[in-house]
UniProtKB/TrEMBL annotation:
Protein name as catalogued: TAP42-like protein
Superkingdom in the source lineage: Eukaryota
GO biological process, one term: regulation of signal transduction
Ranges that cross the membrane: none
Length: 360
């Protein structure tokens, strides 16, 4: 094999970053695919191999400042960032997808711990050489380094909602400015040529600063996810079903009060309530209702409901109603005629007409 066919470390790094951008653009459902996880594992190995090559070639020295670093070496300062970004996206990696939930949770926690450590290493490297991080980034890095991952994290550093919102707005403005500046510098490469040393160096530095903003957001997400995974109960406890208890226990199930777990402590003799309590559903019903509807769905159509009401005599059939109305109308006319005839007989006694006719 000729030396011309061997890819250089710059080519390998650019290709690895291109693959990462493609994999990161996939949808969340695709990221769970076994092929996608295998691709992430392969990419993790490629970035790690490139980092080993950089260490063997001594691109960076502890005795030099950031201004003394070669312009072409600056992008390699982000290797820890890319390794961490791949690690935090691993769900089950090369494990079998059908592995149990506990094994996947432990694997995910391991990947998140590695990602957090790599992100901090990325920030520490930049802080060591200087000229990239601002004073606020350095202060935040110091707070993150002073304690363990469970004691100090971004969520505890910015507990005040107002301060957290202000930091988000500030980071958003910084991100927008950096993205606009990178687009402008990219156009400068095209117009003036990529051999302009000052433009290349400024572009690489701003690209690193944009990755710093992503790093702070990723650490915040990692801390939240690790907190939830560490508090998650084992898989055998999450498979609880009400059938594990007898029907008698289910019938007497009430909300437990600390120190008083028997129903006799809540309801005294004669049904007297000793202290307030709440009758709850089973855990399965409550869990299923979380993603359910907020209202009761209909169990029958309108036609079925009307038929049910007619069968039980709660509604009258239209035909019967019309016949009853006609019958009621006829009865009313007969009654009216009889009432009028009675009134006439009262006003005209029997024989009164003949008596008047025979009077001289």
């Amino acid at each position: 094999m000729s030396t011309e066919s061997i890819p250089t470390i710059n080519v390998l790094f650019k290709e690895a970053k291109r693959k990462f951008a493609e994999l990161d653009a996939y949808s969340s459902s695709t990221r769970e695919a076994h092929e996608h996880q295998n691709a992430l594992c392969t990419l993790h190995k490629e970035f790690s191999m490139i980092q080993s090559m950089v260490e063997r070639l001594d691109f960076f020295s502890d005795n030099e400042s950031f201004e003394e670093i070669s312009t072409s070496y600056i992008p390699f300062l982000a290797l820890d960032y890319y390794i961490a970004s791949v690690s935090m996206r691993l769900e089950f990696g090369e494990l079998n997808r059908a592995v149990d939930d506990d094994a996947r949770r432990q694997y995910k926690l391991k990947c998140l711990h590695e990602a957090r450590r790599r992100f901090l290493q990325f920030l520490e490297t930049l802080a060591f050489f200087g000229s990239v991080l601002n004073s606020e980034d350095v202060q935040l890095l110091k707070l993150l380094k002073d304690g363990s991952s469970s004691d100090v994290n971004l969520s505890t550093v910015m507990k005040n909602p107002y301060e957290r919102r202000k930091a988000k707005i500030k980071n958003f403005k910084r991100r927008k400015e950096l993205e606009d500046k990178l687009r402008y510098l990219d156009q400068s490469f095209t117009k003036r040529g990529s051999d302009v040393e000052e433009i290349k160096r400024e572009y690489f530095i701003d690209e690193i600063r944009l990755l710093v903003l992503n790093t702070l957001d990723n650490i915040f997400s990692i801390d939240m996810e690790m907190g939830m995974l560490e508090k998650m109960p084992p898989h055998d406890q999450t498979n609880y079903t009400p059938s594990m208890h007898s029907k008698k226990d289910q019938a007497l199930r009430v909300e437990e009060v600390p120190g008083k777990k028997r129903i006799d402590d809540l309801i005294g003799p004669g049904g007297k309530i000793l202290q307030p309590f709440t009758i709850t559903k089973t855990k399965a019903d409550i869990r299923n209702a979380v993603f359910g509807y907020s209202h009761t769905l209909p169990s029958m159509s309108v036609d079925e409901y009307l038929e049910y009401e007619l069968m039980h005599g709660k509604l009258l059939n239209a035909t019967n109603t019309k016949e009853e109305q006609d019958e009621h109308s006829e009865n009313s006319d007969e009654e009216l005629y009889a009432r009028n005839w009675d009134d006439w007989k009262d006003d005209h006694p029997k024989g009164s007409g003949n008596m008047k006719a025979n009077i001289g």
